[in-house]
Amino acid sequence: MTVTPMQQSLISHFGEMGSRWGLNRTLGQMYALIVLTEQPLNADQISDALLISRSNVSMGIKELKSWNLIKLQHIPGDRKEYFSAPKDIWEIARTLIIERRKRELDPTLSTFRDALLQDPANEADKYTQQRVQDMHDLMEMVTIWSTELQNMSSDKLSTLLKLGSGVGKILDAKERFLSK
């Protein structure tokens, strides 16, 4: 498999961004290659294209599967496993929201709930609980909102994002109307 200069540039960038997104560089590169390639790829093709070891590819595939970011495919007459990314970019975004929420928000919300169930021993603990309550409430709203987003169709998500600053203008108008 030949990687074009454009693809190589994007693969390198995804590798660098991977570490900022909580993934390692190789995983970011692997996912970029899979997303940017029209045909499903097998592990050998990924290894050859990215010049990484087959064992690194195997570990990366397991990680990408655990994130539900790639799909296993079989090609008739070929015993190898092939992998592809969803064609719908919105599906990828929804999957990332779900997986990041499971890995980051849910455990934090659980810790916050535990802290809020404790009896405060002193004023410092009361203050701490109030701050935790505020953070919990915000994270709970984000969780509810992300659930709403993941259940929206791709068309509705696109429309929602295209509204952009228009939503802020609507809310400003609502405030002006209610304050009269």
From TrEMBL:
Domain of life: Bacteria
Database matches in InterPro entries: HTH-GbsR_regulator (IPR052362), HTH_MarR-typ (IPR000835), MJ1563 (IPR026282), WH-like_DNA-bd_sf (IPR036388), WH_DNA-bd_sf (IPR036390)
Start and end residues of each HTH marR-type domain: 21-80
Signal peptide segment: none
Keywords in alphabetical order: DNA-binding, Transcription, Transcription regulation
Pfam families reported in the protein's UniProt record: MarR_2 (PF12802)
Family assignment from sequence similarity: Belongs to the GbsR family.
Name of the protein: HTH-type transcriptional regulator
Species name: Thalassotalea castellviae
Lineage: Bacteria, Pseudomonadati, Pseudomonadota, Gammaproteobacteria, Alteromonadales
